[in-house]
Amino acid sequence: MEEKQKERKMAGFDFRKEAEGLLDFIDKSPTVFHTVANAAAMLDAAGFCRLAESGHWELSAGKKYYVTRNGSSLIAFTIPGGEIGPFRLFCSHNDSPTFKVKVNAELEGGKAYTKLNVEQYGGALRAPWFDRPLSVAGRVLVQNGTAIETKLICIDRDLLMIPSVAIHMNRDANEGASYNVQNDMCPVFGDADAKGGWKKLIAQETGVDEEQVLDMDLFLYNRQHGTFVGLNEEYLAAPRLDDLQCMYGSLRGFLEADAKSGIPVYCAFDNEETGSVSRQGAASTFLHDVLVRICAASGGVQEDYLRAVAGSFMISGDNAHAVHPNHPEKADPVNRPQMNQGVVVKFNANQKYTSDARSGAVLRMLCARAGVPCQNYTNRSDMAGGSTLGNISNTQVSLQAVDIGMPQLAMHSSCEMAGAKDTAYLAALAKEFFEAKLVVTDEEIRIS
Ligand code: ZN
After folding, report:
1. DSSP SS3 for 314
2. Do 419 and 406 contact (CB within 8 A), yes or no?
3. Cα(377) to centroid(ligand 1), Å
4. CA-to-CA separations, 404 to 14, 196, 298, 320, 325, in angstroms, rounded
5. Distance CA 96, CA 413 (A)
6. What sign has the CA pseudo-torsion 122, 175, 325, 327?
7. Of 53, 267, 329, 334, most Cβ neighbours within 10 A?
8. How many A from CA of 51 to the centre of ligand 1?
């Protein structure tokens, strides 16, 4: 084991550096649009060519490519040997629960305040958004002559706050509170004089005139910077660890991999938190379209595409629940993931997860080859649990697949907790996966 750890450090996956890299990535990525821009910058720096879905694709063996859809989902791939498949896919999601600022954003509050009108995005835990500095980030669509341009903005200052009702005015506050988004979650933007200031601020932050601002997709974000916690700094506290830990860790493994065969594919999908049903989510045609075009551009026909897919394998990475320090009873009696103890394979009899004995076996063998510890997750049998993108993606491109994640706490809070070692474990697994020669068909499974 110790030898293996040294090897991972030699391969560039130093535990501390990968954790710091993740925190930096999260800090720079307050919204899904920023995650794609930052991942694209990492791919650009590694020599990947950017493709447009609307362009003509000419692909060459030995080259590396990526393509985005809606500026919020991204697929990258390499063609190491010029073969048409099999595909080895590592998918995660890059969106996180938050609150979206509505059009006509300003609201009057108590005749003394100007508030922002928001609606919830995804399954957020609401309480952790109270009583902390917040700000706004996202994309602004601006008119430039006859063109409409997209600008990413992140207002980098403490701008907003959602104040709690004081305990004196709500004596039941500690006995199980419920929060109504329309009534309770709209943040204070300023005093009564702030009325009319919202669009001005957005124009100013975008660097354009107010009349040029046509529309915007803006979201609240927590101003808390990611940090190490615990006596030995063994944990991370940061926003959006679900699922940027998987998005970033798998990208690190993808970029470090020296694949010799097959077609490694890296995917980050938007809109998992709302069910993946969108033009760019895992339920869309995005992955299918990209894989078909890779085959076609390599001279393949539909027969080649279908054969490639039949022998392909997908790892769907979305964070898992670690056993909770105060509520261990919420976990299954024996399948209880712990942070810093490696990759979690997620199983569910009702197919919320793709994992089964075949794909679980493949994942365990890959982990062993990489020297990465491996744990298991199942829900308690009397709890429904969550779902993720693996099986949803499989309705468009049906692949043998396994669902995994890194163990974490406080999932869907505005600040979550994860293991400081686990990003390096995930990167090491992803690298091994992309480099291994994997034969996975109904007839045969072989990893060499
Ligand atoms: Zn997730």
Report:
1. strand
2. yes
3. 14
4. 21, 47, 31, 7, 22
5. 10
6. negative
7. 267
8. 27
Burial 283-307 (b: 16+ CB within 10 A, else e): bbebbbbbbbbbbbbbebeeebbeb
Per-residue pLDDT of the chain (448 residues; tens, 9 = 90+): 454 445 456 456 999 999 999 999 999 999 999 999 999 999 999 999 999 999 999 999 999 999 999 999 999 999 998 788 899 999 999 999 999 999 999 999 999 999 999 999 999 999 999 999 999 999 999 999 999 999 999 999 999 999 999 999 999 889 988 999 999 999 999 999 999 999 999 999 999 999 999 999 999 999 999 999 999 999 999 999 999 999 999 999 999 999 999 999 999 999 999 999 999 999 999 999 999 999 999 899 999 999 999 999 999 999 999 999 999 999 999 999 999 999 999 999 988 999 999 999 999 999 999 999 999 999 999 988 888 888 898 989 899 999 999 999 999 999 999 999 999 999 999 999 999 999 999 999 999 9
Measuring CA to CA, how many Å separate 389 from each of 27, 322, 346, 392? 24, 20, 13, 5
CA of 318 to the centre of ligand 1 (A): 5
- Tokens encoding 309: 């897919």
**Please, which residues have CB within 8 angstroms of residue 357's CB and are 6 or more apart in sequence?**
none
Distance (Å) from CA 260 to ligand 1 centroid:
31
Q: What are phi and psi of 34, to 5 degrees?
A: -70, -35
Beta carbons of 122 and 412 less than 8 angstroms apart? yes
**Rounded distance, CA 421 to CA 377, Å?**
19
212 CA distance to ligand 1 centroid (A)?
36
